[in-house]
Amino acid sequence: KSHRIASIPGDGIGPEVVSATIQVVEKLAKTLGTFSIDFEHIPWGTEYYKQTGRYVSEDCLDTLRKYDAVLFGAVGSPDVPDHISLWGLLLALRGPLQLYANVRPVRTFPGTKCPLNTATNGIDWMLVRENSEGEYAGQGGRSHVGQQWEAATEVAVFTRVGIERIMRFAFETARSRPRKLLTVVTKSNSMRNGMVLWDEVAAIVAEDFPDVTWDKMLVDAMTVRMVAKPESVDTIVGTNLHMDILSDLAAALAGSIGVAPSSNLDPTRKNPSLFEPVHGSAFDITGKGVANPVATFWSAAEMLVWIGEKDAAAQLMGCVERVCAAGILTPDLGGTSDTQGVVDAVCLEVEKL
Amino acid sequence: KSHRIASIPGDGIGPEVVSATIQVVEKLAKTLGTFSIDFEHIPWGTEYYKQTGRYVSEDCLDTLRKYDAVLFGAVGSPDVPDHISLWGLLLALRGPLQLYANVRPVRTFPGTKCPLNTATNGIDWMLVRENSEGEYAGQGGRSHVGQQWEAATEVAVFTRVGIERIMRFAFETARSRPRKLLTVVTKSNSMRNGMVLWDEVAAIVAEDFPDVTWDKMLVDAMTVRMVAKPESVDTIVGTNLHMDILSDLAAALAGSIGVAPSSNLDPTRKNPSLFEPVHGSAFDITGKGVANPVATFWSAAEMLVWIGEKDAAAQLMGCVERVCAAGILTPDLGGTSDTQGVVDAVCLEVEKL
Ligand SMILES: CC(C)[C@H](C(=O)O)[C@@H](O)C(=O)O
Ligand SMILES: CC(C)[C@H](C(=O)O)[C@@H](O)C(=O)O
């Protein structure tokens, strides 16, 4: 089989980790010989914005629909306000492409150390984030700008369709894991509309999954549980903002945000799904050649699973884990390797397959 | 001096921890002889609601304005939806009384253990939560209820006045602490209105505090910093929801939510401020006599500071810390004492003053 992937390296360390990943995945395809893969470069990002006034091309959705998947680096630049760059590129794709399921596996990875002494076996969680509405619906505004009586709103929009589809996806995800455990996170004690609807829809969808054990938690109390009883947690589902927060927390508790991957999925497969590291553009280390490529390797492995190359994905992850376990790590994980050193080590492992 | 305190024990373990605290504070006043204090019982809560159809009396704000402060237990009951009980009582006071500064000191307390390997000296943070608007403005609604196309909103409302006053309070709080360090938490990359206004107001207010070192962080990244670099954190300020989440996380990271106190302050002193443990009604242990009273003791100490009894507050905290350090702890902290055991031990310490 042959796959066409759109690569959007974007800003900051995005180009470094995406180039690292393309090297590794191309080596994998060549070595295994079971599939071929073609990465096509798409130059969207802050440079493109400075030249054209837009972060993406006008026909961006149609452009991406020609591909089987999208590999994304990062967006964000110190000289553009974050809300311009993020809504210009990443958030201009997640919602409009209906990539409603943001899946974030979190575990204590070889080479990382769980900082919690409550988690004797490290952490292994699956976080499912609603990715198309809620607090990221993009609504709200400012009135009386600059006056003492200025008022601004941020409007979270929740739909029954939006909640039901992510809930179903989350229950299916929980069912696919050995423990079949799901926690539905809301904040329905202080938020009386969309959050109460979340609770209602969760109860309805749960009826179709009698084999899944589920419970509900308030987002604030969930952070306490993640810290104090990490072993009681398995799969978590929540709103766009709640899971944005909990997924960063989870990655930090597991050992490092530097290895955390994410999949932005359209489970209906009408649109190509988008795979990206969680870490962001990290301008403090951009251009130094020391960015940790592991989160992007792992994101690419998730992409391979999604496009039907499950075996190849498993082989790739095996290679990456062996390299990390051998201590070939970038400085953020306490190692002394640079990005290319990690790439070369993974390619060597791939050659041995 | 003589002080009149409204006591609202409320639901669940609220009555147990409030009664424990009244015993201890009355003993303190009697022993020190430097002030007198009078607690008057106000029966608001779920029982009151079942009898009257309301969680509070109709003239609740005027009722409370007759007191110097309010000591609050907890609200919430398994047989009433949380959004009814919370908006019926606690949230009916915080906003309407303009208790805009919710102050939550968090530290690794004697008898608790910080679960983080990254914090060798335990944790000592000061969290300042905007407490009158934002995500808790109470706006939003549901349309097409029950239909497949149902849509619901939660509307966060931010005002320049509301942001400026909490920001000023936070900078002053940071200034009063040895490290003079403040982190302003927002989410202004995905939220483009109220959150951007937060950033703008922070920059303006900061100009009046050149002696305070401050930085900005996104709420998701802040969780990573709290876990990975706890020693880099001192005072934090953020929105109602963001700090609701971060304060629970902070308490868990410090060692236990069972000791975490909070002050709901009206810094203009037009209204009485309200002091409450962070833990909530905890129906699973209600009536068993094992609730941890330390969070309420600490909240009462904060109340004593607020009403001008700084010395008495310090003496009280000294007694409580000695008791905890001696291992006289409730089961949630791994101890074998019941609530009254802790009360008796603290009273014994008070007698020695
Ligand atoms: C960059 C930012 C807009 C983004 C988000 O808030 O979703 C990031 O934090 C993430 O988690 O993917
Ligand atoms: C009980 C609940 C409404 C409350 C809140 O969300 O503010 C609690 O979690 C808190 O932190 O005081």
From TrEMBL, chains A, B:
Q: Which domain of life is it from?
A: Eukaryota
The Isopropylmalate dehydrogenase-like domain covers 4-346
Q: What is an example of a GO molecular function annotated in this UniProt entry?
A: oxidoreductase activity, acting on the CH-OH group of donors, NAD or NADP as acceptor
Which residue stretches, if any, does this entry annotate as coiled coil? none
- InterPro entries registered for this protein in UniProt: ICDH/IPMDH (IPR050501), IsoPropMal-DH-like_dom (IPR024084), TTC_DH (IPR011829)
**What Pfam families does the record point to?**
Iso_dh
Family assignment from sequence similarity: Belongs to the isocitrate and isopropylmalate dehydrogenases family.
Report what the protein is called: Isopropylmalate dehydrogenase-like domain-containing protein
Species: Penicillium coprophilum
